[in-house]
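Following up on my earlier message about adenosine-5'-diphosphate. Here are the inputs again, as you asked, copied directly from the submission form:
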Amino acid sequence: MGRLVIVSNRVPDPHELAQPAGGLTVALADALRSGDPCLWFGWSGRQMEFEGDPAPNVETHGSVTYATIPLTPAQHRGYYQNFSNGILWPLFHYRLGLMSYERADWFRYLEVNRLFARGLASMLEPGDTVWIHDYHLFPLGQELRNLGFQGRIGFFLHIPLPPWSLFRALPPAEPILRSMQAYDIIGLQTEEDANNLRGCFEAEGLSGADRVRPFPIGIDPTQFGADARLAFAGEEVQRLRDSVHDEPLIIGVDRLDYSKGLQERFLGYERLLTRYPEHRRHVTYLQVAPVSRGEVEEYRLLRRQLDETIGRINGAFAEFDWTPIRYLTRPVPRSVLAGFYRLADVALITPLRDGMNLVAKEYIAAQDPDHPGALVLSHLAGAAPELSEALLVNPHDADAIADALHEALTMNLEERKRRWTLLDNEVRSTTAGSWARDFLTALDAADANVDGQTPA
Ligand code: ADP
Ligand code: G6P
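Thanks, got it. Here's what our run produced:
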């Protein structure tokens, strides 16, 4: 048996206790707890000028060896900021109007994928299994094949994948889809995403639809529940609890990203205060939204818009002894967040689109079974099909958010327990560990597909 080799753009920093927010590294780190030796290759998070190929920085922590390379500022801008996060991210979240395409960025994207392939190929051994993650690295499998790697290569996409009618707006749609022929298994979060990718392959006359399967991702609910119990007794939760004086607390936790529907969510909360005034001066909404991709223009604009919306709502509704919205844009350690989830009576999670949304699963895992809170969840989150016992809402409908919040805030204990028990069963049935095992079992059973063609 060879090693498992994981490749992703973002790699957790083994020296940092507080990791940047993001579902990919969280789920993979949980999945790797099995202790089998593994190599994790990716970007170091640093930008620097270099000539020729940079040597990977290699460090081993426990069973995982991290090998990372830096990017030049021009590569970081073209590959990461512009192509991955200014083109693929909006399009794949169904926001065609936010996509701003430049051919030069596509060339940078290919350049960095080739750089990754050369850096990784020098470390690969025959028999290794390679598992590539997310939209930054679609062509990487093909580039490894071009360098002669013949082992199994799997790919998992953590974000949604739009139908062909949208996908075809991407100028390099065809070479990206063609490069995916190099994968032995392609995993997506939901059946809807898998069907969309099959449709894209068919529209381009490409084979490979039989290699596409949904593998919904999960968390480590047992560990997270234990973290939540521990944090609940900690100082931060105590301070938060003292500050709300036994009044209801709503929590939202998201990277500061337009896909998370934060603006729409604040308007929904405002509608609650307008239409159900009995909650004024009682309820508190705590939104934790760490800044993400702050160098990308759309993210900067969103931040300003949210500052304005929150300022306006707080200005209009606050009393001298009550503030309706508390808003934090700095990261909070996940171990502390776990305690906040346990304390909160309601979680408000309303992305306009989301690959899965792990925060929804974390909220469920963090609850006290004797006094569980209620989950208000967007029906457009990848987690919604599994978490159908949540109060599902359309995140574009402020009145629907207000009604669901009111229902959540007034739900009796018996109904909260009934829903939570079913939700908790779901969260326990697909964990980060079982997700990785299921994917790798399917990859192991696949025939290595070494005859993929070179992309244009
Ligand atoms: P995405 O991957 O789009 O960021 P997810 O909800 O799937 O969305 O995953 C986000 C992950 O990041 C969760 O595991 C969550 O606990 C973590 N996270 C979110 N906000 C913070 C924060 N402020 N500090 C630390 N971790 C966070
Ligand atoms: C999502 C993506 C990940 C990404 C994370 C954080 O979860 O699927 O690939 O790592 O967001 O974004 P960032 O740009 O900071 O890596």
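One observation from looking it over: The first helix runs from residue 23 to 31. Hope that helps, and feel free to reply on this thread.
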